Amino acid sequence: MRHFILVPVMLAGGLTLSACSDNADETVERAFQDVNVVDETNLNDVMLTVADPNEAVDYFQRAAKDNPDRVDLQRGLAKSLTRANRNTEAVAAWNRVVKMDGAIPDDAVDLADALIRNNEWDRAEQVLDGVPPTHETFKRYRLEAMVADSNQEWKNADTFYEIAVGLTTRPAGVMNNWGYSKLTRGDFAEAERLFGDAIRQDDNLFTAKNNLVLARSAQRNYTLPVVPMTQIERAQLLHTMALSAVKQGDVTTGKALLREAIDTHPQHFEDAVRSLRALEIG
Q1: 136-216: which CATH topology?
Q2: Cα(275)–Cα(270) distance, integer angstroms
Q3: Which of 134, 183, 143, 190 minimizes the C-alpha distance to 164?
Q4: pLDDT tens digits along 4-47
Q5: What is the DSSP letter of 167?
Q6: Which of 69, 81, 200, 245 could lock onto 250 through a cystine, CB 3.0 to 4.6 A?
Q7: pLDDT digits over 105-120, tens only?
Q8: What's the rounded Cα separation, in Å, for the pair 80 and 282?
Q9: Domain coordinates in residue numbering, the chain
């Protein structure tokens, strides 16, 4: 009888072990799936930040082709195309994203950004008009300011620039844009102030330094501003100032500034040499 008892017990034990084995396999599989999801998320982040933009485009194109309904992959593709300056493709990609389930207001803002990069200002304005007013982000207001500038709606532009500055801890770029807006309007003193503010926020922003020189030169102030600059930057800014002086009819001052730029530059400064030669021949 003992044998008859042992057989079912042994069978039961075997079934139990089999069930445990199946559960273990499922647990391991789920664990690997979880790891894969984490790895994929990390890889997606890497591809969107440090990877070469065109490599990122290839990666997200493959991933999105295999999973066309995943909005995160389509969004990654659109962002990568924008980073790669493939603006026409980026517009098409963002158009797909904003129509998908899971699309968010930021996607519409990014579509507007791509449209502006593609010089489609009217469409960009339409897209921004459709973004909920409660969606208050730095990028949204920076783009709103740029669109208002393009329409010469100066009061709106100033309002949007001011809001954008208050929504970021790194306002140098938007201050520079705001200053350039003032420069194009002929408000040179206010432009000078904003370029100076931008440089105080980021003293490596050469564009703001160059614009600051333009704003000062427009007021016939041909002295370099007291801001951090390398020797090469100093020479380049003197060159900018010289060309501005010549443009305003102050040719003698322009020639002197060009000579100073040539002497200041640690290497041969071909652009300044060519400009000076053209003035002396003329």
Answers
A1: 1.25.40
A2: 9
A3: 143
A4: 444 443 334 443 444 444 555 555 444 434 444 445 667 788 88
A5: T
A6: 245
A7: 999 999 999 999 999 9
A8: 49
A9: 44-132, 136-216, 230-282
